[in-house]
Amino acid sequence: MKQKILLLLATVIFCFSGFRAMANETEPNDTRETANVLDLNGNNAGAINVSGDVDWWSITTTGDGKLNVTINVSNGLNLWCYIYDNNGTILLSSGYSATSTTVSADGLAAGTYYIKLIPYFNGQLPEYTISNTLDEPAETNDNEPNNTQAQAKVLGVNKTKTGHINYYYNDMKDTYDWYKVTTTEDGRLRLKMTSGNGQNVWAYLYDHDGTTQLAAGYTSGSAFVVNEDGLAAGTYYIRVNTYYNYEFAPYTIQDSLFTPDEPNDLEPNNIPAQALTMPLNGSV
Fold first, then answer.
1. Using CA atoms, how far apart are residues 231 and 219, in angstroms rounded to an integer?
2. CA–CA separation, 240 vs 247, rounded Å?
3. Is the pTM of the predicted complex or chain greater than 0.85?
């Protein structure tokens, strides 16, 4: 008998603890400023308690990607789910359900986003659980800032880098990524771009001044987008951006330098006074 009582007590404590673990909504949370925290990849429970009640939640992501917010309604009443930017006014995505639905917003940069939950019909009091996941690209992000030529990151000769372009946060986008490659020999410079999500990415090759365009190309898959020959040794600049402003993409960029078999002549030898000696019956 004593064992049964202890078992019953343990069961009650366990159930009560489980209830407390899910019932994490606290009032007031009717505004963005009073939003409850929903941990990244976490879950909570709540309810629209009275007519006119609004529940706000905040989620802070740690990387670029697609934010998925899932609501499960337990009493069959329709509940709206809105995903807002950091300012709490720019709507990124929305959806509703009386059972279960997932609302997603892709192309988001790391930051804090806000979720607003309200009943679909005035006066209804839906009860719910809420959870979230973040789907991150396989390609790691580039180091910021690199939005201008002056901030260009080094891309070594015959090297590969990954990055993310045009991801959004707080009403701003990462529109441009700049790189620079310094060659030590004359030759042909080739750039290969790979889009990680099937959206179009551009690569522009510029001369040392960062404004004289030498070549450009784009791809939504994997392709050699630049193949420029006749380049002397020096520093060149590469700008990466999406084809359309509404697109975003994780990407891989790879450069290759192909040099002639013949070694270069010694400079300067541009005028007769600088002429180099060519041996009699010899070759250079």
1. 23
2. 13
3. yes
pLDDT in tens, 107-160: 999 999 999 999 999 999 999 999 999 999 999 999 999 999 999 999 999 999
- Give the DSSP letter string of the chain: -HHHHHHHHHHHHHHHHHHHHH----S---SGGGPEE--TT-EEEEE--STT--EEEEEE-SSSEEEEEEEEESSS--EEEEEE-TTS-SEEEEEEESSEEEEEEEEEPSSEEEEEEEESSTT---EEEEEEEEE--SSPPPPSP-SSGGGPEE--TT-EEEEEES-EETTEE---EEEEEEESS-EEEEEEEEESSS--EEEEEE-TTS-SEEEEEEESSEEEEEEEEEEPSEEEEEEEEESSTT--EEEEEEEEEE--SSPPPPSP-SSGGGPPP--TT---
Asked if 105 and 114 touch (Cβ cutoff 8 Å), the reply is: no
